[in-house]
Structure formats: C-alpha cells, structure tokens
Amino acid sequence: MQDKVHPGVLERLGSRGQGEAVPVIVTYRQMPTTAERERVTALAERYVYRRVPAVAMRVTGATLGRLNEDPNVISVWPDLEMHTMLDVSAPLIRVPEVWAASGRGTAVRVAVVDTGIDPDHPDLTGRVANAISFAGTSAADGNGHGTHVAGTIAGNGAASDGRYVGMAPEAYIYAAKVLKDNGSGLMSDVMAGVEWAVDQEVQVINLSLGSDEKSDGSDPLSKLCDAAADAGVVVCVAAGNAGPRSGSVGTPACAHKIITIGASTDDDQIASFSSRGPTQDGRIKPDVVFPGVNIVAARADGTSMGTPVGDHYTRASGTSMATPHAAGVAALLLEGLPSLTPEELKRLLQATAVDLGLDSNTQGSGRADAYAALTGEVPPPPPPGPPPEPPTPTPIPSGCLTLPLQVIGLR
Amino acid sequence: MTGPADEARQKTGDALLALYRARPQAIAAAIVRSEGEAQPHLAEVEAAGITVRRVFRLVPALAVEGVVADLLALAELQWVASISLDRELHTMGSCPPDEAVRPPPEAGDAAAAESSEKPDPESEQ
C-alpha cells in the first residue's frame, strides 16, 4: 500500500489500535459523487473541498485499502497539525513532516553550550533539565544568545500561541554557561562545558560559538569535540560569520568529527556572512547548511540581543542561528532512528541535502532536508530561479541582410 | 637533528611563542595537552608556580595560568604534548540580516538606502 498512501499515514495507523481511524486528506483526479465516496469510505468525512478535488476524512486500515485501489484516487496524505513556525525555516527543511512521521523530539537530551539560559521562558519552562556555569557567574543568560539558540532547538511556542515553535519542541535542554554576558569566553571554559554535557549523557551538543582563527582541527577544543563525537554525542558547530572570505572557518568548526553548519536564507541562498572552507589542512567545510537569517526565537528576560519581537522573542541572524536548527533536527532524527551514530547522522544529513549548485566550500553538501534525512528519500529540488533576462537585441547596421543560420553537425 | 629547545618550540603554539618574545613575564592562560592522563602531573605543574584551573578527561589536558616564561618551560617536559594560549571564543549570532545576501546599496542611491533594514544592534560581542 505504498503507491498512493503517504508514509506518515501508515506510521500513524501503526501507532493506533485495531479499527481506530486517523485523519487524512484524499486527493482525487476528479471529485467523486457522494454515492461513489460512500461506497469506498462510508463517509467518515470532515470537509469536502470545492476548489480542488479533495476530501478530508478519517480512515481505518480497511478504508485505506479501498482508497488505494480506487483508480480515481491520486494520493492519501496525513492531515497534519498546522503551526505557524519559528520562521519559514521549519517548513523549508520539512520539519512538520518529521513531526507527523516520528515525533517532536520527546525526551531527547540536547546541550546548549553558550551564554546561559532563561529557564523561566514560557517556551522552555519545565524542560531545562540541568544548568551549570563555567563563566564565573550563575547560569542565567544575561546576553540572550543562549536562550535564542535553546528556543530554536526546543521552544514549544507557548508564549506565542504556537506561532514560534522550535525544531524539537519536546526535547530536554541541558545548559552550560561558558560565555560571559558580553558573548565571549575562554576556550578552556567551553571545553569544560562540552565535557560536562557528555557527563550528563546528552545526545546532542550545540556550539553556536567559536573563533575565526584558522585551524586544522588539532587545537584542544576541536580535539575535545571529536572526543565527544567518539563518545556517541552528535556535536553541531557554527561555521562562523567571517564569510564570504575563503578559508574563514575557524575553531571548533574545523574539528573532524563534528557537523559544521553554514547559514542559508529562506530562498536557498547562502548568507554572505557564512564562513567558507577549506580548513587550514585543506578539508571541505561547512558540512551542510541550515536556515540562519532572520530567525525569530525565544528572548531571555531583560535582554535585547537581535531585534526584539514582542515581549518574549527576538530576531537574529548568524551561523549561531543555523546551528540549533541542525541540533534540533538531529534530536528529531535520533528519536526516529535511535541507533544512528554521530558519523551516520552526519552522513545522512549530507547525503539527503538539497544541492544548491554552489561550491562545496560554500554550501557543504547542500541545504539540509529533515524529512529526506529521516526517510532517506531524495529531496525535491529547490524552486527554479527567475528566467534569465532576454538579451538586448543588437541594432543591425543599415544595409545588412539577415538570414537565419543553421549549425549542422556540432553538439 | 633537533635539540630539546627545538622540540619544546614545536610543541608550543605560535601565539604563545609570540607572547613570550614580546612579554615573557606577562601572565597568560594556556591549555596543556598531555601524553596520557594529565591528573598525575598536577603537583609538578603547581610546583613550577603555575595555577591549574581545570583538568580535562575527554582529552587529557590542563587549563593553566602563569608567567609566560614558566608556561613555555612546561613544553620541555616529556609528558607535555602541546601547549597553546587559552584563546577567547565568541558567539556567532546577530549578523546584520540585510547584508546576508544583498550587497550594500550604491553610494547616492537614496531610495535604496532608506528602504534597507537597519542592522541588528551590537548588544553582544
């Protein structure tokens, strides 16, 4: 029953009891009559649409079989829960399809090693499992960056009636404050935060920080990040904001076993600030890109990083913002495919990324597609750009005769 | 054939070497990576007048602080694999979104300048 039925429908049916129904939307070649529909579906209908031949209904496994055999049925889609998203970034990388197919990152443990966290933000309340500071202060986020990152990973949209929802809105956050409220900190403090996160048995670590100084991945922090990956933790690291200069990926973005994240825009261009490879030892970086421009996410109380949006959110851009998209998607993938190793998850993201047609040291393997990574499918290509401008006709000098030419024999 | 001083120099990061040449008596923070576990060597490091700030386990290393000349002397020890300055890192957020893709407006293009979005405020490093 694979040809017409979306896998998400089968997943949902599989998780229900015998005879229970799931909501779907059925598209037809032409709208069947009421009698024709009744014969197949027993009319468990919610909406019959007028402008497209489609019907929203609830189906059991038996009904699904009859729909699949109906030559007038084109497809059966899951009737997905709709949310206005964190940005357009989530639907762009098909996160809602992942939610429908395998969940919202329930209980996956993600560490945010950053400027701290506002654990009382409505979007994060009750899901900050632990917090610690290596920056000489409390773990409170007096900068805003760490909370924005955490919201992009796991915000549930509670403060916006579901408008701004993070990638994995049911994941747990472990926050290590390693950067002071001015956004800077020592490499050794960051190393301490990463080591703490591994001790907390997190599954993913987000590092939206770094240095623009070139590296071959042999510096102590890069080596420690590689060790975290060896310990089974997926480590997502911002490529840096020193682009578009070639060779502008620094540390720990140059580490070997982490996933280096560049920033793309909502229309699948690469943000000019996104750092480019190669590394000092000639390796291609970034590994993959995620949306990182104009990202609206949780704002820590009392902070003004970015451009505030209402009382509880702020808009910001950077590879800092792209990286938590990756970390959140990693959490979703680990929920759906829990046996994935960090290396396998990295290869999956790369293998299923949308090729934007750019140099590898600009886009890595392309712009990630979360649903393609979950299912292993080849993602749809990005929408075509505008057609090229027609060439300006060259005025023909007077007195010349023009004839059509046919070039024969050349390819 | 390289001597002990050359070997020590090869273990030392360029920035730390440069600081040594400029200000050998300055106080600096550094990261020492060890061959094997670092914990057994704490007493030796502290006896050299160097403060140990952190001991790492995932990679065998110490975060230390001390006089640059004393830090460099650590590089001569057999168990020290490398020593480098403890660099400052920073967040990677709050880039001006209007420069994300489009180049800045041409000088004199008043309409474009008026319509371009203001960069995000520099509220963090």
Protein topology:
The complex is a heterodimer of chains A (411) and B (125).
Chain A: H1 7-14, E1 22-28, H2 34-41, E2 45-48, E3 54-59, H3 61-69, E4 73-78, H4 89-92, H5 95-102, E5 109-114, E6 128-133, H6 145-154, E7 172-177, E8 184-186, H7 187-199, E9 204-207, E10 209-210, H8 220-230, E11 234-238, E12 259-264, E13 288-291, E14 295-298, E15 307-309, E16 313-316, H9 319-336, H10 342-351, H11 360-363, H12 370-375
Parallel strand pairs in A: 5-7, 5-9, 6-7, 9-11, 11-12, 12-13
Antiparallel strand pairs in A: 1-3, 1-4, 2-3, 14-16, 15-16
Chain B: H1 4-11, H2 14-22, E1 27-34, H3 42-47, E2 51-56, E3 61-67, H4 68-74, E4 80-85, E5 88-91, H5 110-115
Antiparallel strand pairs in B: 1-3, 1-4, 2-3
Mean pLDDT of chain B: 81
Number of strands of chain B: 5
Count of helices of chain B?
5
Following the backbone from N to C, one meets helices and strands of chain B in this order, namely: HHEHEEHEEH
Largest sheet features of chain A: 7 strands, parallel
Looking at the structure, what is the overall shape of chain A? globular
Q: Which outline of chain B best applies?
A: globular
CA radius of gyration of chain A is 25 Å
Mean pLDDT of chain A: 88
- Low-confidence runs of at least 5 consecutive residues of chain A: 80-86, 398-411
